[in-house]
């Protein structure tokens, strides 16, 4: 029987070696040696038998064994029974427990096959992520070098959970099932590659920056308007970064140990804008002018600065122009000054005050060019340079004017100031039928009268009243688009419905009851009459252009109307 049992032990040992499984007895790890045919279980049984015979002899020769000795023997025996019960493995064999380990043949690209447990695998994947975060690289674009890091690209392991799930399959089931899986791996090893992913926006930004360093990049044709005529610079073919293959190289580099220089793949590429396309820009699609003659010099400066930033924008089909993005940041450093503006129904001083008139003028030109108005919001209060519902406001990042080229050919936005006029003209290829005209009609549905607000000033004599700023009526209005063909109306469409708050006239009111003590006069002074609303301009504060004299309500917009005059 011993010889047969020894052969079983040898087989188990061989099975364990192939499966990559350790064997433990009790709390400690032991190896089954083929050279020793006597298993631990047999040895334990033999020792127990001898121990029992010894105890019988002892009891025969000395029947005066103490109670404490017997108790000690019972205490020693109890843990052996418990351990034997706990050490039953999946096969029911007592005294042998298999430790669940990852078998040979299961590997992870970049980590090798030396990962023995699931915990070790998880730690190794975390370590790989940490290395990626700290790793830098250099991208070579036609000899020009650009340094960056994988952290900047947002590199991460996207299939970590899948890898751990696949590995866990080899640690579940009983010993025979795991042995079968391990045997399959020996014949056909499994090597899983961690999937590296980048942040899409970060990659696009990086490749755009890299393409700018590319000395052989394709050059788009350009267009600008000089002295009343268009000048077109032809395009040039070149080589651009192949995004897909270059990104694949970057992902492979994440798994490598050392930092390296990655040579970007480039492909021959035609420019995205050609001189032939730009040659279509020759017709006025829509134009509009507003006047700011009543503006302060600071507000006039803001309109001139903002308009210059909007001039010369080329929009290819489907592209969008954002007024806020073109004109911001509204800072002193960017050329703007403090001027009047609206905020939450109040007139305040703001850097860049007047930008809304630029937005409004663009909006009106875009309506006439019939390109898509992607975003437009009205002011909180009425403005004086266009009729109700004809305005467009800019405020932070929550109010903007955005227009999109919905045509099949490119368009060009020309923006200029002349004197105290600001004009937007949208150029392109006219393809609308001859005899077709459009007009825009403002309809006021209701009005809320403005009131009067007084600010008491005890530095002024009682009876002094002076208007500080002019208010506006509140209004609810609509803007309609009317299309005519050969003078006959064919359509009338609602463009917008808008609500404007009222703004009261603001007056400074004197409250001083008696004149302050004055030094004794050398000669009698003449009596001064009470100050009135017609006092000189010394006490007058410049009102914002948004509160210029209101435009009279005509049936339709006049593109050449100069409100405020």
UniProtKB/TrEMBL annotation:
Signal peptide: 1-19
Record's keyword terms, sorted: Signal
UniProt feature, compositional bias: Basic and acidic residues: 40-75
Annotated PROSITE patterns: G5 (PS51109)
Organism: Lachnoanaerobaculum saburreum
Disordered, as annotated region: 36-96, 512-565
Record has Signal as a keyword: yes
Entry keyword Signal: yes
PANTHER family found in the cross-reference section: EXPORTED PROTEIN, EXPORTED PROTEIN-RELATED
InterPro entries assigned: G5_dom (IPR011098), Glycopeptide_resist_protein (IPR052913), Vancomycin_resist_VanW (IPR007391), YoaR-like_PG-bd (IPR022029)
Any Pfam family matching the protein: G5
Superkingdom of the organism of origin: Bacteria
The protein's name in its UniProt record: VanW-like protein
G5 domain location: 434-513
């Amino acid at each position: 029987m011993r010889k047969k049992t020894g052969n079983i032990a040898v087989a188990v040992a061989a099975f364990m070696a192939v499966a990559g499984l350790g064997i433990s007895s009790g709390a400690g790890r032991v190896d089954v040696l083929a050279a020793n045919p006597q298993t631990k279980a047999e040895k334990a049984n033999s020792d127990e038998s001898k121990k029992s015979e010894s105890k019988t002899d002892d009891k025969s020769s000395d029947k005066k064994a103490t109670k404490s000795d017997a108790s000690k023997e019972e205490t020693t025996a109890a843990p052996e029974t418990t351990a034997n019960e706990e050490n039953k493995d999946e096969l029911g064999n007592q005294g042998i427990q298999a430790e669940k380990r990852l078998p040979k043949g299961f590997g992870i690209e970049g980590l090798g096959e030396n990962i023995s447990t699931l915990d070790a695998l998880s730690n190794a994947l975390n370590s790989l992520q940490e290395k990626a975060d700290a790793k830098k690289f250099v991208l070579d674009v036609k000899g020009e070098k650009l340094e960056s890091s994988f952290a900047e690209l947002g590199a991460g392991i996207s299939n970590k959970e899948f890898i751990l799930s696949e590995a866990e399959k080899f640690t579940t089931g009983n010993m025979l099932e795991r042995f079968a899986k391990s045997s399959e791996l020996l014949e056909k090893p499994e090597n899983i590659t961690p999937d590296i992913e980048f942040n899409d926006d970060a990659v696009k930004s990086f490749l755009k920056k890299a393409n700018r360093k590319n000395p052989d990049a394709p050059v788009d044709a350009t267009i600008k308007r000089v002295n009343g005529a268009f000048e077109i610079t032809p395009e040039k073919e070149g080589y651009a970064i192949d995004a897909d293959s270059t990104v694949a190289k970057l992902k492979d580099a994440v798994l490598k140990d050392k930092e390296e220089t990655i040579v970007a793949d480039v492909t021959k590429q035609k420019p995205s804008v050609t001189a032939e396309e730009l040659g279509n820009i020759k017709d006025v699609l829509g134009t509009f002018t507003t006047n700011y003659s009543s503006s302060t010099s600071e507000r006039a400066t803001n309109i001139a600065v903002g308009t210059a930033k909007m001039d010369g924008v080329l929009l290819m089909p489907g592209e969008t122009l954002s007024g806020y993005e073109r004109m911001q940041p509204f800072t002193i450093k960017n050329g703007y000054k403090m001027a009047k503006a609206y905020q939450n129904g109040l007139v305040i001083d703001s850097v860049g005050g007047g930008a809304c008139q630029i937005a409004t003028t663009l909006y009106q030109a875009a309506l006439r060019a019939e390109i898509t108005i992607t975003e437009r919001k009205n002011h909180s209060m009425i403005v004086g340079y266009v009729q109700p519902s004809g305005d467009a406001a800019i405020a932070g990042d929550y109010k903007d004017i955005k227009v999109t080229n919905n045509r099949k050919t490119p368009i060009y936005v020309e923006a200029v100031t002349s004197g105290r006029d600001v004009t937007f003209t949208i150029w392109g290829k006219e393809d609308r039928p001859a005899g077709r005209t459009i007009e825009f009609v403002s309809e006021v549905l209701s009005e809320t009268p403005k009131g009067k607000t007084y600010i008491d000033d005890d530095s002024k004599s009682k009876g002094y009243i002076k208007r500080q700023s002019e208010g506006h009526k509140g209004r609810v209005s609509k803007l309609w688009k009317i299309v005519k063909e050969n003078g006959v109306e064919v359509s009338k469409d609602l463009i917008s419905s808008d609500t404007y708050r009222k703004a009261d006239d603001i007056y400074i009111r004197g409250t001083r009851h008696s004149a302050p003590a004055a030094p004794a006069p050398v000669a009698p002074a003449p009596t001064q009459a009470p100050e009135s609303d017609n006092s000189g301009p010394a006490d007058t504060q410049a009102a914002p252009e948004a509160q210029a004299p209101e435009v009279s309500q005509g049936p339709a917009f006049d593109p050449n109307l100069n409100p405020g005059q």
